Amino acid sequence: MTEQLPDRVARYERRFNALFAEYFDTLGTTLDAPSFSRFTPDCLELLRDLSLRGGKRMRVVLLHEAARLVTDEPVEGLDAAALSVELLQTHGLVHDDLIDDSATRRGGPTTYHAYRERFPRHPRAALGLTVLAGDLALALSLRVLLDARLPVGVRQAMVEVQTRAAADTFVGQIIDLERDFAAEAPDDEVLHDVADRKSARYSVLAPLELGLLAAGEQPAAHEEELRRYARLVGICGQMRDDYLDLFGDEAAMGKPTGTDIREGRHSYTVARLLAAVHGTERAVVEEALGNPSRTPRAVAAIREIGERRGVADRMRTDMRRYAEQARLVAEGWRPRWREEAVAFFERVPQWSVERAG
Fold first, then answer.
1. What is the pLDDT of residue 56?
2. Which residues form a coiled coil (predicted)?
3. By the number of CB atoms within 10 A of the CB, which of 72, 110, 182, 218 ranks highest?
4. 309-332: string of b/e by CB count within 10 Å (b at 16+)?
């Protein structure tokens, strides 16, 4: 690859951000809302604000690179598919922030807290409007595919991919909440299944399938290996997020560490921490779990326990192991697809684990 991976990611990000802004600029004229409604344009503005705050747009990158597995020629339908995957992501952000009662997201207010500020005396209205805003983002993610200028069969196949991805994500969110109600920390198979369903299937698998469909390939013929690649990338990505929540640099991340500890979440890090400590150390960890009043000093003490007991080292080792397994899956694509694009997918897992932000 002549272009460095971070540079390629940044190029896709810049182009897509301009496309996303243009989409929202015209959405008000294409959405069938009554002229008297003030809440509808307000909802669209909140969705626009949240959607355009950024992220590396890795779903968009994976989508375009999946098409490049087949051809280096321009491919119709990728813009519509990119809008679809990011609108589905916006839906997920709106609902995740509601479930978690989060006040901020990417340096700005969450949709839920924005509505709470608008309607301080009407909490049920704020709740209802937040749910509806997320639902609207989901509907728009499907509509943008239905409106795409593509053959009917391709449009239908893309809608089916996104509908399945959305349903899988909802189940993933349900079992994610269920996981934290268990008396004991879950084993890795449970954690892997949560990561796969809640994140990997819509963030990795769906973009892969959409990109292949747009390029004229039939992803169903390669379903098993695409699913395995997506699952492994999702696992090491979730491990990285869980690792950073306790062992990360707050200044670099722009948010406090210890959220999973304070909320009592049975993350990969928490499960490994509980398995590694005993006696007084275990009592310190268990006392902090689910206690939102734990101070940064208390979290730092748990971090020190985790480092001393080898939890941080084990997490880094496990992340790299799963990233290597994903790389090997992609390596197996070389006889079938374009070498340069395959090389990209070989590099993505380890880069995703090692990147700073």
1. 84
2. none
3. 110
4. bebbebbbebbbebbebbbebbee
Query: Cα–Cα distance between 320 and 78 in angstroms, integer?
Result: 31
Q: Which helix (H) or strand (E) holds 312?
A: helix 311-331
Tell me, yes or no, if the two domains 1-179 and 218-357 fold the same way.
yes
Q: Supply 324's token pair.
A: 């290597």
Q: If 0-12 CB within 10 Å is exposed, 13-18 middle and 19+ buried, where does residue 131 land?
A: middle
Give the span between the Cα atoms of 299 and 257, in whole angstroms.
8
In terms of Cβ atoms closer than 10 Å to its own Cβ (0-12, 13-18, 19+), residue 275 is middle
Alpha carbon of 30 to those of 23, 50, 133, 268: distances in Å? 10, 20, 17, 44
- pLDDT at residue 49, as a whole number: 96
Residues of the chain predicted below pLDDT 70: 1-3, 251-254, 356-357
Which residues contact residue 357 at a Cβ distance below 8 angstroms, ignoring those fewer than 6 apart?
252, 253
In one letter, which amino acid is 213? L
Query: How much is the pLDDT for 253?
Result: 66
d(CA 83, CA 20): 7
Q: Which residues, including other chains, have CB under 8 Å from residue 147's CB and lie 6 or more apart?
A: 80
What top-level class would CATH report for the domain 218-357? mainly alpha
Q: Please, which residues have CB within 8 angstroms of residue 268's CB and are 6 or more apart in sequence?
A: 188, 191, 238, 239, 242, 243, 315, 318
Conformational region of residue 150, where left means phi above 0, alpha means psi within -120 to 50, and beta covers everything else? beta
* Cβ-Cβ contacts under 8 Å for 87 (sequence gap 6 or more): 51, 137, 138, 140, 141, 144
At 257 the pLDDT is 85
Fold of 1-179: Farnesyl Diphosphate Synthase (1.10.600)
Please report the pLDDT score of residue 37 as a whole number: 95
